[in-house]
Amino acid sequence: MATIIKMVVFDMAGTTINEENIVYKTLHQAINTAGYKVSLNNVLAVGAGMEKLQAIKSILQTYLGVNDDLIADSIFQDFSKRLDEAYSSSSMSPQPGALATFQALHNKGILVILNTGYSGSVARNIIEKLGWQEGLEFDRLITASDVKGGRPAPDMINLAAQMYSINTAEIVKIGDSVIDIQEGKNAGCAMSIGITTGAHTVEQLQSAQPDHIINNLLELLPLV
């Protein structure tokens, strides 16, 4: 018997929202300003989808061998200030097909959950800027601030499952980074799907062995 899908958990930036990599460009800027030279591609390769303080720690450790919580905390504080400024002057929009996909899933009785490695305050600012409302375009927002374990730990998906009393095997996870796919697999989701609209290339996504890779959110609908 085919699994009945009851929920789709969507990553935000790069998956459902086009914000032109503002977060990772700002993260790159903050790390380099602190005197640690890495490329934007390095930042995307290691940090995409990850809670942002942990992303800084992982980038410093991976490329520079730096393992210092005080340095990471200092960069994170600078990053947070820069991000507030960047968002105040930036534009963002739904990814192509996002709103139509949300509506089609709701028409099928499938819950639409947004999750993200952003803090709650950053994520809510993005949602507000788009004019999306919980209970209308999407059902619930779950952020890195809501759980103990950030991606690739399954905590955010597990929390969503608990909120609606459903099994993670009835959930699909979709995201634009390797860590999104790993999160879905670690949660035991029915499918973990990569999408090519954001941080990682097809080849990078394939390295996480997703169940599917799609190029537009509307391509999700026949799969569920």
Automatic annotation (TrEMBL):
Gene3D superfamilies: HAD superfamily/HAD-like (3.40.50.1000), Putative phosphatase, domain 2 (1.10.150.240). It holds the Pfam family Hydrolase. InterPro entries: HAD-like_hydrolase_sf, HAD-like_sf, HAD-SF_hydro_IA, HAD_sf, PGP-like_dom2. NCBIfam families: HAD-SF-IA-v1 (TIGR01549). This is Phosphonatase-like hydrolase.
